[in-house]
Amino acid sequence: MPNLDLFHHEAGKPNIEDYAFDNGMHFWYASDVAASLGYDDFVLFKKNVLNKAIGLCMANDFPIPENFEQCTRKVNGEIIEDFKISRFAFLLTVVSGDIARPQVQQAQAYFAAFADAATQLIQEGEIGDRLTVRGKIKEGNRALDSVAKHHGLRDYSRFHNEGYMGMYNMGYSALQKAKGVPEGRTPLDFMGTRELNANLFRLSETKARITARKDYGDHALQSTARTVGAEVRQLMTKDGGTPPEALPAHRDITEAQKNLKGAKRELKKIDGPKETKKRSKKNSPESDSLF
Questions:
Q1: C-alpha closest to that of 49 among 8, 11, 99, 6
Q2: How would DSSP label each residue in 200-238?
Q3: Which partner for 104 in 89, 97, 131, 152 could form a disulfide, CB atoms 3.0-4.6 Å apart?
């Protein structure tokens, strides 16, 4: 694969736009995107980067079929499982990539030039992970509440507060104050990736524990929530680890969510309805990889 610098806006020089297709939607093949970002192993790219981007898309309620379309493609005479990805999906992939790679850095700068909202997203290194895990926590809370309801829960507020008591040695309101969270907002929106992952694990483990032990009623459910929270705390503080309440607050994630939606709108304008051009066989979707 040639080492091409494709993420630029210089006239008369090939760039990433030359490798896009229009076939009912404006798209790139994920295998080409992988090569452009410096990933030689497409299988590993799908596992470590593309799946992460799809998870980010799903966790923030963006339609998957509109942005990631599974397909097959002939590359160097071999049929491979590939994806057609939109410009917005390309951005999500870039945000999910390894920032240590020069090509990923160039791609981030390229997208930042297209959309101001994308600039805000890219400036926070772990924002992709934060957005993904925060979305999973919303799903996890709904799943836990559903299970707890079938196990006789009535006082949802105290049930969740007990989970925080176990994990933070303080209740929800005290945690808000300790983290400097504005009134009416959840501390979850100001947590970093490690703390969010710990809370996600707490929720999923509480749900599993309730199901396995067949706990029933407010008292039993609250006890389980607190016990699991305490176990998560113990795991985090083992061998001198930082307790969760001492982890630093991060930028309000709802701002990043707004930026994500704004970036989608801005990028969609670029690929609005255009007159379809006849493409050569070389540039047809059925051709070999362009890289």
A1: 99
A2: HHHHHHHHHHHHHHT--SHHHHHHHHHHHHHHHHHHHHG
A3: 97
Look at residue 66 and tell me if it is in a domain.
Answer: yes
Residue 208 Cα to chain centre, angstroms:
24
Same domain, 137 and 218: yes
pLDDT digits (tens, 9 = 90+) for 87-132: 999 999 998 998 889 999 999 888 888 777 777 777 766 788 898 8
3-state helix vs strand vs coil in the chain, percent to 5? 60, 10, 30
| 83, HSE (Cβ side, Cα atoms, 13 Å) | 25
Angstrom distance (rounded) from CA 51 to CA 68: 10
Domain co-membership, 110 together with 156: no
Contact call for residues 87 and 26 (beta carbons, < 8 A): yes
3-class DSSP assignment, residue 111: helix
The token pair at 127 is 């924002």
Domain of residue 142 covers 127-250
For the entire predicted model, the pTM comes to: 0.76
| 8 domain-assigned | no
